Amino acid sequence: MLDVRRLRLLCDLSRLGTIAAVAQAHTCSASAVSQQMAVLEREAGVPLLERTGRRVAFTAAGRILVRHAETVLAALEQTTAALAAVGTGLAGPLRIGAFPTAVRTLLPAALVALGRRHPGLELMVSELDPVAVPAALRERRLDVGLLHDYDVVPVKPDAALDAAPLLDETVFLAVPATESTTEGADPLRDVRDAAWIMAGPGTLCHTVTLHVCRAAGFTPRARHHADDFATVLALVAAGQGVSLVPQLAAAQPPAGVRLIPLPTRRRTRIAYRRGAATHPAVAAFVSALRLSTSAFLGE
């Protein structure tokens, strides 16, 4: 009989690429992971990995087992959801991961509504960059989390996760109110020589800004780096540069900021492990967050 915990390690190895990375994700030693893989190979009765020095590659049997293991793990999530559905009320922890703007704008009303409707739920929020949410879901540190990407820089779906659409936002060019732009012209062309306020290198927002500006024919000149949109807008209002800001973060801009809509869109989704969509706590959260989002946007 194949051990589910070892199947999780195998899927993590397929995703992360090295035994050392799997060990770090599970806070154990690399030798412990290697031992578990050796036991799994004995359980399977066929070689799953080919070892070359410190590197490993999957055999044909290993690749087949990874595909089936993902299905098995999703089926276990569905089973957990089905058992929870026959319970006598929602109770226990629901661990939620969300990016700062959503925590500030969309989550409070959703948490209040969920708490009133299901007082037995222990709602636990962690503020996370969307890039960190998939790993936290797979490693069971979260039950549900918010992801986003942009139409100009789409993110490849994660095979271990499912997601429901939540929000499709306009992205704005934020400029100081004193900044002049040509009527009817491409607003990006007018700020090609401006100083830019950009997110930190390596973040999705930084990549999107580079993509949008380069598509307009220039590379932005970064003066400041800030990841919090409230900080970004304050710097724009102070005349320190221009920036790209999504609709959710631009709902109440400070005085001194002018927002110019661009064709770029940011897309937010509610993610959870495959098979968990019907879990009553997950379904209740998705419903509450959608209502909160509609209310916030005045829909």
Verbal overview:
- This is LysR family transcriptional regulator.
- Belongs to the LysR transcriptional regulatory family.
- Residues 2-59 form the HTH lysR-type domain.
- GO terms for molecular function: DNA binding; DNA-binding transcription factor activity.
- By secondary structure, the protein is α/β, with parallel strands linked by helices.
- The chain folds into two domains: 4-83, Winged helix-like DNA-binding domain superfamily/Winged helix DNA-binding domain (Arc Repressor Mutant, subunit A); 90-299, D-Maltodextrin-Binding Protein, domain 2 (3-Layer(aba) Sandwich), CATH 3.40.190.290.
- The chain contains eleven helices and ten strands.
- It has helices at residues 4-16, 19-25, 30-44, 60-85, 100-105, 107-117, 133-138, 187-190, 204-215, 229-237, 280-297; strands spanning 49-52, 55-58, 92-98, 121-127, 144-150, 161-176, 195-198, 221-225, 243-246, 257-273.
- Strands 4-3-5-10-6-9 form a six-stranded mixed β-sheet. A two-stranded antiparallel sheet has the order 1-2.
- Helix 6 (107-117) packs across helix 11.
- The termini are far apart.
